Every structure is written in structure tokens, then in C-alpha cells.
Amino acid sequence: MEYQLPPLNALRAFEAAARHLSVKNAADELCVTPGAVSQLIKALELHLGIALFRRVNRGIFLTDAGQAYLPPVRSAFRQIGDATRRVAVPAETGILTVSATPFFAAAWLVPRLQRFQDAHPDIDLQVMTGSALADFSRDGVDVAIRHGLGRYPGLSSQRVLTVEIVPVAAPALVKRLGMPAAPAALTHWPRVNDTERKGWQLWFQAQGVEDMGPARGPSFDDSGLLLKAVLTGQGAALLPAAVVADDLAEGRLVQLSAVTWLEDFAYYLVYPEGSHDRPKVAAFRDWLLEAARNASGTVAAKRPSSGGRKRASPTFAGKTSLPRS
């Protein structure tokens, strides 16, 4: 038996409302009124003969049928978007939209963008920040830089920087407490933590330090705020070497130990597979990977000698396998 397809606008309203679990937010996204979204959803439910949402007080929740219906509808929209990009002539307008995590954008990408603009004056970058993987078919994003394992089905991903973690502190704090003679000495320092408060514990364990004490000190769920706390002398912190390279080189931070720690994650450049040969994407990709290689080399050159301790290989973009636990 062949079923008549539901109206496309009704499916769009359903997908947006299901993603936001809000009729109002869906209406804002689709540039219509909440009443119009509600009418489209009712029309879709009437077409299907089943309720897709439960309405509780002022909120909405997906029914079992709605939860089952959402993934294929979302997948269909994604496939339509991908197919459209493949067959349509790309509009090379000169604007390239880059989505990056807030910390990577602020601490690593933006300070280097002038070099890209000098090399490619015909390309105007639009930088957006976010932590969730971009929806390339919906958000208008051309490329994204994300922190993870680089496993994104249906997308191309290329390693930019392996996350090499180093202990750092402000010069004023180092002057007051003295340079630590060994990793264990940092157990007595004031420390700034990530929100899970596990970074220092894992770093000390990796150095064979058993008695590290409790994870005292402030914690931050935003790496940019954590960096600001360190720069103002509130404590030592563990931060990615690549993103603090400029602060170390210019004396705003001091690396407290030559011992580093490779986290099981990296920053990856991610984009739709069909965008690989787009001139703007290729230009940004080649520049970014070259900048990452140069940054890795700069950090390695400025790092103090490890005193004979065996260290990991230099983590140049795309050249070193990530460690696995």
C-alpha cells in the first residue's frame, strides 16, 4: 500500500519542535508564529493518525511514536541537504563560515587569522563558536573545528592539533613560590581545575605521584575562563600546549615542568565530504594544517629539556597516532 507523503512544511515544523521541545523556539527558527507551528504539527498528526507530542502544562514531549519518527525524518532532511550541495553549483561568494570551539577560537585561531587574510585577501572569514558538531545542511557552516576523536560518520575530518597538556602558571606566582623542582612539588601549589576536577589527578598519576592531595581551588566549565584565572595568578593549571604557545613565548605564562601529557583527544577540521574540493575550503584547510605544523614545531623548540626523560614524539598535525587507554 502506497502512502501519500506528508507536507514538507509540516515535517519541518515537527523536526524543529522535536529538536527544541518547544513550539516557540521552533517558530523562531522557522520565522513563523507559534500558532502556525502548532497547526502544522496537528495537520501532520492528523495525516499520520497518531499523536507525535504529549502536551504537559506549557511544555511538549515526544510520544513513543514521535521518538521513532524523528530519526528518519531528520536523516531525510540531512540527505536532501547533502544531495543539494552535491548537484548545485557552489556559491563561492568569498565568505567562508568557520565554526570553532570557544577556547580554540579565542586562544589559537583568532590570533593567527591575519596571516590567513594576508595570504587569501579574497576570502572573508566568518567565525562562529559552539561545542556541538555543526549541522552543515542547516547552519550555513562551511567547516568546523571540534575537539574529539575525529569520528564523524559521513563527514571528512583531518587532525589539526593533538592535545598535549602542560602545567602553566603566571610569572608572579612562580616568582612567589619558586620554580618547582619536580612534578610532585606542584601538589603544594594553588591549582585551577576543569569542571570535572580530574585533570590534575590524571597528570600526577601519569608522573608517578601517589599523594596528590584533594582537588582544591576554583573550577571552570569554560577553558577561556580557566585561562583567565591562571593569567591573573590564581593558581597553576593544565592547558593544551598549542593554545598557550603564544602566552608562553611572550612571557605571560611559565611552563612549570618539561613533563607533558598527551590527552586521548585532538582538534579536528570537519566538513562535508562533498566540500573537499571547494576552493575556499581547500585554501582554509591547507593554511590551517600548515599553521598547526608550525605551531607544534614552535612549542617543541621553546620547551625546556626533559633531562633525559623519554618524551612522546612531536605531535604535528596528522603525523602522530593518538594514545589509547
Q: CATH class of the largest domain, please?
A: Alpha Beta
Helix content: 40-55%
CATH architecture of the largest domain: 3-Layer(aba) Sandwich
Q: Given the structure, what is the number of helices?
A: 12
Helix-strand string: HHHEEHEHHEHEEHEHEHEHEEH
Helix/strand class: alpha/beta
Number of strands: 11
Relevant CATH superfamily of the largest domain: Periplasmic binding protein-like II
Compute the average pLDDT: 82
CATH topology of the largest domain: D-Maltodextrin-Binding Protein, domain 2
How is this structure best described in words?
By secondary structure, the protein is an alpha/beta fold. It is built from 12 helices and 11 strands. It folds into 3 domains: 8-87, Winged helix-like DNA-binding domain superfamily/Winged helix DNA-binding domain (Arc Repressor Mutant, subunit A, Orthogonal Bundle), CATH 1.10.10.10; 95-157 and 268-297, 3-Layer(aba) Sandwich (D-Maltodextrin-Binding Protein, domain 2); 163-265, Periplasmic binding protein-like II (D-Maltodextrin-Binding Protein, domain 2, 3-Layer(aba) Sandwich), CATH 3.40.190.10. Strands 3, 4, 5, 6, 9, 10 and 11 form a 7-stranded mixed beta sheet that branches. A hairpin with a 2-residue loop joins β1 (53-56) and β2 (59-62). The radius of gyration is 24 Å and the shape is globular.
Secondary structure blueprint with pairings:
Blueprint: H1 8-20, H2 23-30, H3 34-48, E1 53-56, E2 59-62, H4 64-87, E3 95-100, H5 102-109, H6 113-119, E4 124-129, H7 136-139, E5 143-148, E6 155-169, H8 171-177, E7 193-194, H9 199-206, E8 219-220, H10 223-231, E9 237-240, H11 245-249, E10 254-255, E11 261-272, H12 279-302
Parallel strand pairs: 3-4, 3-5, 7-8
Antiparallel strand pairs: 1-2, 5-11, 6-9, 6-10, 6-11
Helix pairs in contact: 1-2, 1-3, 1-4, 2-3
